[in-house]
């Protein structure tokens, strides 16, 4: 069997070298390197970046009003020690869960296993509740019933 050889002929362009005499370029003065932005002129700075600030009454927060509202709500609470205990318990629970998650992340294969479990559960949830219209309706009725139980209690 004879192997067919394919050759590609590339066009050759004439090469001419242009030499530029070194006297054609003017000698520029050497400027010292400065890192300060204060040296930039005002017109150049404003051309680069311009920010216009305006005050909008709807987005302003009145701190005195906020503190007065919080004080009124705190004064309306009947069992203050219980609220403080629940708040402290929530802070401890958040701290403890952070410690546990940090410890789990240090175990070599456990974080990857947890991520696999999370991806698997997310896939199951999408298949079970979001993929079909009838299951989406079922999910919305479940959510509405939970909302109703919470607001009635």
Care to describe what's here?
The protein has 153 residues and is mostly helical. The protein has five helices and no strands. It has helices spanning 42-48, 63-76, 80-106, 110-130, 133-152. The longest helix is centred in the middle third of the chain and has 27 residues, at 80-106.
Q: What is the distance, rounded to the nearest whole angstrom, between the alpha carbons of the first and last residues?
A: 89 Å
Tell the overall outline: extended
Q: How many helices in DSSP terms?
A: 5
The tally of strands reads 0
Give the rounded overall mean pLDDT: 78
How is the quaternary structure best described? single chain
Low-confidence segments: none
- What can be said about the biggest beta sheet? none
Radius of gyration: 35 Å
Structure classification: mainly alpha
What is the N-to-C succession of helices and strands? HHHHH
- Share of residues in helices: 55-70%
Query: In percent terms, what proportion of residues is strand?
Result: under 5%
Offer a concise description of the structure.
58% of the residues lie in helices and 0% in strands. It is mostly helical.
Features:
mainly alpha
Layout: helices, strands, pairs:
Layout: H1 42-48, H2 63-76, H3 80-106, H4 110-130, H5 133-152
